[in-house]
């Protein structure tokens, strides 16, 4: 990540010279809409941004390019978590909802004998309705029957969100040096 921040301007903050990390850059619209610039990539379990950067670009110095291409602000929550970290996150996030701690929260988040852990309902087409709109086992209208709607429980929701983060795009390596030069130009103005 140091290569990215080395281009940020220096400012004086509380009497010390520091990098102004409040600057934010983004791809120019012509680059962002060019399908040849980006390649799809699926992150493997436990793979870190540094691993992807080293694997594809040959250096960890291009982690910033992966973050930028995927609008990742917070690498801890915007990058897919390992299964252990995901479960810890669910335990922390939903402890008060489950009125429990530890493994009991995970058990609650997956339990099929309660509706307290249902976040919404979804049909086979991916259409979602709120749990306030529909009560499990009821009929919404003549056009909707109970078998069309499945509850999406806390665990499934968080797991799916985490899995969705696995599909990212990376900037084709032939553009990495150009992106590096443009970053330097933008931040040194």
Q: Proportion of β residues?
A: 15-25%
Q: How many beta-strand runs?
A: 7
Annotation field: number of helices: 10
Helicity, in percent?
Answer: 25-40%
**Mean pLDDT across residues:** 85
Give the biggest sheet. Answer: 3 strands, antiparallel
The number of domains is 2
Distance between the termini: 21 Å
Form type: elongated
Q: Structural class per helix/strand content?
A: alpha+beta
Rg estimate, integer Å = 22 Å
What's the order of the H and E elements? HEEHEHHHHHHEEEHEH
Q: Could you name the ranges where pLDDT drops below 50 across 5 or more consecutive residues?
A: none
User: Order of strands side by side in the largest beta sheet?
Assistant: 5-4-6
Written overview of the protein:
The protein contains ten helices and seven strands. A hairpin with a 5-residue loop joins strand 4 (118-122) and strand 5 (128-130). Helix 3 (49-57) crosses helix 4 (63-69). It has two domains: 2-80 and 167-187, no CATH class; 83-163, no CATH class. It has helices at 2-5, 29-32, 49-57, 63-69, 75-78, 83-93, 95-98, 103-110, 154-164, 176-187; strands at 10-13, 16-19, 38-42, 118-122, 128-130, 150-153, 167-171. The two termini are 21 Å apart. The radius of gyration is 22 Å and the shape is elongated. By secondary structure, the chain is an alpha+beta fold. The protein has a three-stranded antiparallel beta sheet with strand order 5-4-6. It has a two-stranded antiparallel ribbon with strand order 1-2.
């Amino acid at each position: 990540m140091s290569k990215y921040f080395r281009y940020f301007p220096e400012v004086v903050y509380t009497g010390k010279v520091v990098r102004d990390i409040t600057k934010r850059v983004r791809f120019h619209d012509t680059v962002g809409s060019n399908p040849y610039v980006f390649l799809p990539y699926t992150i493997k379990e436990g793979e870190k941004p540094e691993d992807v950067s080293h694997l594809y670009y040959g250096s960890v110095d291009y982690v910033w390019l992966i973050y930028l291409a995927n609008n990742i602000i917070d690498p801890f929550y915007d990058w897919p978590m390992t299964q252990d970290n995901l479960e810890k996150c669910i335990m922390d996030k939903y402890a008060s909802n489950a009125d429990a701690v530890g493994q009991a929260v995970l058990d609650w988040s997956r339990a099929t004998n309660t509706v307290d852990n249902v976040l919404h309902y979804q049909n086979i087409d991916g259409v979602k309705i709120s749990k306030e709109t529909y009560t499990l086992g009821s009929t919404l209208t003549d056009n909707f029957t109970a078998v069309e709607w499945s509850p999406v429980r806390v665990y499934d929701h968080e797991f799916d969100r985490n899995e969705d983060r696995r599909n990212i795009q990376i900037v084709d390596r032939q553009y990495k040096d150009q992106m590096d030069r443009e970053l330097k130009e933008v931040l040194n103005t």
